[in-house]
Design brief:
By secondary structure, the protein is an alpha/beta fold. The strands form three sheets. It has a six-stranded mixed β-sheet, with helices on both faces. It has a five-stranded parallel β-sheet with strand order 2-1-12-13-14. It has a three-stranded antiparallel β-sheet with strand order 7-8-10. Helix 1 packs across helix 14 and helix 7 packs parallel to helix 8. It is elongated, with a radius of gyration of 23 Å.
């Protein structure tokens, strides 16, 4: 019987894509004399590289011109197969689409993600997996909702400009033109469990990573609070018929504190609909609040990104008859333990019958052997083990991965 090794790494950020890592591991196995079957399954956890991973699993790449994070037209890709589309938010509003060293924390928009959803729907997608991560935006998904036909208006009935800062002037949300996507099932592929607002919310936690100063964070937080208040009320009206015109809601006075117009109550007391409190749900703060829009307006359900991607790639079938799984990512650290791709791969391999042992390659590893074993990873092989200089590791990551893989073959495939 021909031996099989499954190679399922995530990207080494800044050095190698997941596909590149897969190719280098395969080359290292061949150099070590392994002549069995190598099943390459590049993976991602919903962030950068998600579409590439889906394409590697047999999905068709579809290119679409959409508005980028600052309004410029960009070419974004999504993946499509048999009525399922995989959309990567970063393709339309990612930080990498901004000029190097520049940020737009107050004005960046998720509008392009909405355009990708519409394109996938036009091509017949009935299930859309929305991967989030690596975005430049903190607009609560308002741009996405606008692309789907909603209007965000100020006190004078004028349309708001894009971005999270402008949400402070939101007075009315008109959903009368919102595209009906009720026939499409949406999944939010994310391992982020932050709510939209507060100390653990989108602006406070992720705003600084997108260039937001302390004052910017406070401005974005206030805008997201107003957006959540008006959006939740508008959706309640649209679903429950609580008066209002054509599914729109107006917040009285832009100087009013968020939350004062729509209060929680057991049954919508005083003629006001009860808020859905989507802003408090785990994952609402994902991708600068894009998770909030997906949960509230699209009815998305949330699952760990790596679980969804492995399912789409029929990963369980790839494990049949496998002797070893090689996974990995750029840095195996404490964040890895919170649902990142290598842990998802290890869990899937452990759940297989019979279980398949898993080892990992990485740029660096700060996890102890006990932590690795608890995560289902039998051993980790880091580039820094053979090249202590981190810059050299990143520059020469490909050849170093091949050398590490020869060590893996010697230890596990003899």
């Amino acid at each position: 019987m021909v031996e099989r090794v499954v190679v399922a790494p995530d990207k080494f950020k800044g050095s190698l894509s997941a596909t590149d890592v897969t190719t280098r591991v395969a080359a290292g196995l061949a150099a070590a004399g392994f002549d069995g079957e190598i099943a390459g399954v590049p993976v991602a956890d919903g962030g950068d590289g998600t579409v590439d991973a889906a394409v590697s699993a047999g999905y068709q790449r579809v290119d679409e011109e959409v508005p980028g994070p600052v309004g410029n037209v960009v070419t974004a890709s999504f993946a499509l197969l048999d009525g399922t589309a995989v959309i990567e938010a970063a393709q339309a509003c990612g930080l990498t689409l901004l000029p190097f060293g520049e940020f737009a924390p107050l004005t960046a928009t998720s509008r392009g993600v909405g355009h990708l959803i519409l394109a996938a729907s036009r091509l017949g997608a009935k299930q859309i997996v929305l991967g989030v991560g690596g975005v430049a935006t903190t607009d609560g998904g308002a741009g996405l909702v606008r692309a789907l036909g909603a209007r965000l208006l100020d006190d004078d009935g004028r349309g708001l400009p894009d971005g999270g800062a402008a949400l402070n002037r939101l007075a009315e949300l008109d959903l009368s033109g919102l595209r009906d996507l009720s026939g499409v099932e949406f999944w939010l592929a994310s391992d982020v469990d932050n709510p939209l607002l507060g100390a653990h919310g989108a602006a406070s936690v992720y705003g600084p990573q997108k260039g937001a100063s302390g004052d910017d964070v406070r401005l974005l937080e206030a805008g997201l609070a107003r957006w959540a208040d008006v959006a939740e009320a508008a959706v309640a009206i649209r679903r429950g018929g609580f008066g209002g015109q054509h599914g729109s809601v107006r917040q009285r006075g832009s100087g009013q504190q968020p939350g004062s117009d729509w209060q929680d109550g057991p049954d919508g007391q005083d003629g006001r609909p009860k808020r859905f409190l989507t802003a408090d749900e785990p994952g609402a703060g994902a991708a600068g609040g894009l998770g909030f829009a997906a949960l509230l307006f699209l009815g998305a359900r949330m699952r760990p990104g790596i679980e969804l991607l492995l399912e789409l790639a029929s990963f369980g079938e790839r494990l049949d008859g496998a002797r070893l799984v090689i996974t990995g990512e750029g840095s195996l650290d404490a964040q890895t333990l919170h649902g990142k791709a290598p842990v998802g791969v290890a869990r899937a391999a452990a759940a297989h019958q019979p279980p398949v042992p898993v080892v990992a390659v990485a740029g660096r590893c700060t996890l102890s052997p006990d932590e690795l074993r608890a995560a289902g990873i039998s051993a980790a092989y880091a580039l820094t083990d053979i090249e202590p200089d981190v810059i050299q590791c990143m520059t020469n990551a490909g050849p170093l991965v091949e050398r590490l893989t020869e060590r893996i073959a010697a230890d596990w495939l003899r």
